[in-house]
């Protein structure tokens, strides 16, 4: 292993052998797999922006030069490099360059401002930070300059699309140019596939985000095999990822390109019309994003003005997908997106496949994939495995399991056992055919007079109402029952009334205690930086409203 072995947790030799021996770990680094791909077709187009194209040869030359430039300013194996960049080519160059150096990339969400930037970089003990001079209407570099004195571990600040203005600052373009003359530096580092190279954080829907650590083997192996298979099956593939590369879902889109030898269109800021224009212009075949991204395009008033018939595959992830969205994607683009379940800690746990029965594609999140194992246990007694159709805690075991939480060994120990099982904190059940049915987070379950109500089941039901654009269900505190069901709705056109919602549920023959007793109409939901509804904020809002109602001031 390279330097950093004392800073991070690591797998035992026995654990490494467990996955390497059957070939479930490819024993490749990200940059090593990328180099293979470049050698196969160096002049094939790799990256596409509105303004230019990069071939795989140019992609490699820029990332190699950047790696050499970074070594020149003191970036070392095991260093944490926090990167706050939009979906620019520079982000792709950094992903490969930092892998080649043996450094750890730590993506930082673009929506974060001074408070979050300061807190996260201090927690990470970040050694180097990369930010744009500015993006949109925000000056990222100036904010970093202001807080730099509060970051004792930060040794350098690297400015993308800008230039240095003080000691310890470096322009990213200048590093690439300097590195082109010093490629010999790359011979000094030889990263290992079992090195930590990725640190990102859970979405924080419950607060207190946790930093999960991955090695090349836990990430690259799955994506290398998937990228190669997809390349062989999809000649002329052109992908476009709507999700930001600071989120794992968007970050890994580069891996598809880098290891599959396929072209990727970069969108630095999601605007439905911009995406639709690029789909038409570049004949995009594979589109990926969150449900919100997909709905933003499909329901845009100008959707029919653009030719999107080139789309052959749609990948939806990062948040819950309703059965109606899956059906709409099938109708519009004649593709069956895989309904996927996973976490940052596990990457992909289960997935539906195009050949699965339609009912399974709509109502389940599939079966375990890529060597993964699944079991459901009693949350109060994890030693007791539950039978089919009984809801319990979802447990994962497989080759994509993260190494551990950064600086939180006690939390890591709480989430796994000696047999390699990871306890997700999510609830679900296996049906009679072994498909996983996701029920939600344990902390989101509504306890109504002793009856457990699972929000996702109601959300999927209400998503089919013609006046419901999006929906989130939480518990409303109640002195007598404990909690009642409250639906937060973003309307599609005219807002539905509570009577409308209740009539809809009754027409679907829903159990009475599952029918919402409160309806809150909103223009937008509070969201995490990764595009998930922040349920904790809605729970807090419901608690405030319930308290006001008890005091006689609620409407």
Describe this structure in words.
By secondary structure, this protein is an alpha/beta fold. It folds into three domains: 13-42 and 52-215, ANL, N-terminal domain (Rossmann fold, 3-Layer(aba) Sandwich), CATH 3.40.50; 218-441, 3-Layer(aba) Sandwich (Rossmann fold); 451-550, GMP Synthetase, Chain A, domain 3 (2-Layer Sandwich). It has 18 helices and 27 strands. Strands 2-1-11-10-12-13 form a six-stranded mixed beta sheet, with helices on both faces. Strand 14 (340-341) and strand 15 (350-351) form a beta hairpin. The longest helix is centred in the middle third of the chain and has 18 residues, at 216-233. The radius of gyration is 24 Å and the shape is globular. The termini are far apart.
């Amino acid at each position: 292993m390279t330097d950093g072995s004392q800073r991070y947790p690591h797998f035992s030799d026995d654990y490494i052998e467990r996955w390497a021996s059957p070939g479930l770990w490819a024993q490749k680094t990200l940059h090593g797999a990328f180099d293979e791909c470049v050698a196969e077709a160096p002049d094939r187009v790799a990256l596409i922006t509105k303004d230019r194209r990069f071939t795989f040869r140019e992609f490699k030359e820029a990332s190699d030069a950047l790696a050499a430039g970074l070594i020149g300013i003191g970036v070392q194996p095991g260093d944490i490099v926090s990167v706050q960049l939009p979906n620019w080519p520079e982000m792709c160059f950094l992903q490969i360059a930092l892998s080649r150096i043996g450094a750890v990339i730590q993506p930082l969400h673009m929506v974060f401002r001074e408070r979050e930037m300061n807190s996260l970089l201090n927690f990470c003990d970040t050694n180097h930070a990369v930010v744009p001079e500015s993006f949109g209407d925000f000056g990222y570099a100036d904010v970093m300059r202001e807080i730099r004195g509060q970051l004792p571990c930060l040794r350098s600040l690297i400015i993308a699309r800008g230039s240095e203005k003080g000691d310890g600052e470096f322009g990213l373009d200048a590093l690439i140019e300097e590195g082109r003359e010093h490629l010999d530096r790359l011979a000094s580092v030889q990263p290992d596939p079992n090195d930590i190279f990725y640190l990102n954080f859970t979405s924080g829907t419950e607060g207190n985000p946790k930093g999960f650590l991955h090695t090349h083997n836990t990430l690259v192996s799955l994506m290398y095999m998937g990228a190669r298979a997809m390349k062989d099956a999809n000649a002329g593939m052109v992908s476009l990822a709507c999700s930001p590369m600071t989120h794992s879902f968007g970050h890994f889109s580069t891996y598809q390109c880098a290891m599959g030898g396929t072209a990727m269109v970069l969108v630095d800021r999601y605007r439905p019309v911009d995406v639709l224009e690029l789909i038409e212009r570049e004949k995009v075949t594979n589109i990926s994003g969150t449900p919100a991204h997909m709905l933003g395009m499909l329901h845009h008033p100008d959707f029919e003005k653009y030719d999107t018939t080139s789309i052959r595959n749609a990948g939806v992830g990062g948040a819950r997908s309703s059965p109606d969205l899956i059906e709409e994607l099938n109708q519009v683009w004649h593709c069956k997106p895989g309904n996927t379940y996973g976490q940052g800690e596990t990457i992909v746990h289960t997935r539906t496949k195009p050949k699965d029965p339609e009912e399974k594609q709509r109502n389940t999140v599939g079966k375990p994939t890529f060597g993964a194992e699944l079991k459901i246990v009693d949350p109060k007694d994890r030693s007791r495995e539950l039978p089919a159709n009984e809801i319990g805690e979802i447990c994962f075991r497989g080759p994509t399991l993260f190494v551990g939480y950064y600086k939180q060994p006690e939390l890591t120990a709480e989430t796994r056992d000696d047999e390699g099982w990871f306890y997700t904190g999510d609830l679900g059940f296996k049906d009679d055919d072994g498909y996983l049915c996701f029920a939600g987070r344990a902390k989101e379950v509504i306890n109504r007079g002793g009856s457990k109500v699972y929000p996702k089941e109601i959300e999927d039901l209400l998503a089919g109402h013609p006046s419901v654009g999006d929906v989130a269900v939480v518990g409303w505190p109640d002195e007598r029952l404990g909690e009642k069901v409250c639906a937060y709705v973003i309307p599609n056109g005219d807002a539905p009334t509570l009577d409308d919602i209740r009539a809809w549920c009754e027409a679907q023959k829903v159990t009475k205690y599952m029918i919402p007793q409160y309806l809150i109409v909103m223009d937008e939901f509070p969201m995490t930086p990764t595009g998930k509804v922040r349920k904790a904020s809605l729970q807090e809002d419901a608690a405030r409203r319930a308290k006001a109602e008890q005091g006689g001031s609620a409407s």
